Amino acid sequence: MHCPFCRHADSRVVDSRTSDDGASIRRRRQCPECNRRFTTIETASLSVVKRSGVTEPFSREKIVNGVRKACQGRPVNEDDLAVLAQRVEETIRASGSAELDAYEIGLAILGPLRELDEVAYLRFASVYQAFDSLEDFESAITSLRVEREERESAARAEGPDGAAPAEDVREEPAPHA
C-alpha cells in the first residue's frame, strides 16, 4: 500500500477492525518513511461474468435498476429496492465465490423479490427462468398461492399477537390450610 503523503511503496498495519456490517475491514496504517498515519477500507471484490464472457465488477446499482423495471407500477419504494440489493449482495458474498455468473445473480434476486412483491417476482422470474408458455406462469402462480396459504394458516395457528395460542388450563383453587 503506497503512502498517500510521500508515495513510499510500503506501510505497516497498526490496527484492523471490521465494519459494522462485516462487509469491509478498516485498517489504520503507518508509513515507515514519513511516519504519518492513514486509514484504508478494504473489501473483497466480486466479479460478474456476463453471458458474452466479459467480466465486470459487481454493482448493487445494477440490481436495483433491473428490479426497478419489474416493480414498475407496484407499491415498492427505493428503500425497499436498496434493502433487496443489500440482501442479494450478502447472499452472494456468503457463497464464498469471488466470481459469479450473471445468471446466478438473477436467481439470487428471486427469493427476496418474491417476499417483496409477488407480481414483480413473476415479471422478473419470467425472464430469468425463461418462461415459454402460459403453463410456466400458471405453475409459478400455483406455487405462490400454496406458499401464501401455508403462511396464512401458520399465522392463524400462532394467534393475533404472533405467539402460540395458550392452552386452556384452569387452575384449581389452593386448599385452605
Describe the structure.
With 177 residues, the protein is α+β, with helices and mostly antiparallel strands. It folds into 2 domains: 10-41; 45-154. The protein is 45% helix and 17% strand. The protein contains 5 helices and 6 strands. The strands form 2 sheets. Strands 1-2-3 form a 3-stranded antiparallel β-sheet, with no helix packed on it. Strands 5-4-6 form a 3-stranded mixed β-sheet. Strand 1 (12-18) and strand 2 form a beta hairpin. The mean pLDDT is 86.
Give a quick precis of the structure.
Its cofactor is Zn(2+). With 177 residues, the chain is of the alpha+beta class. It contains 5 helices and 6 strands.
Attribute tags:
Transcriptional repressor NrdR; 17% strand; metal-binding; 5 helices; 177 residues; 2 domains; ATP binding; three-stranded mixed sheet; nucleotide-binding; three-stranded antiparallel sheet; 6 strands; alpha+beta
Which whole number gives the mean pLDDT? 86
Our Rg estimate from Cα atoms comes to 25 Å
Strand content: 15-25%
Q: How many domains, as an integer?
A: 2
Main beta sheet, described?
A: 3 strands, antiparallel
Give me the side-by-side strand order of the main sheet. Answer: 1-2-3
Name the poorly predicted regions.
Answer: none
Share of residues in helices: 40-55%
SSE blueprint:
Elements: E1 12-18, E2 24-30, E3 37-43, E4 47-49, E5 55-57, H1 60-70, H2 78-94, E6 99-101, H3 102-116, H4 118-128, H5 134-158
Parallel strand pairs: 4-6
Antiparallel strand pairs: 1-2, 2-3, 4-5
Helix pairs in contact: 1-2, 2-3, 3-4
Cofactor: Zn(2+)
Biased composition (Basic and acidic residues): 148-159, 167-177
Domain ATP-cone: 46-136
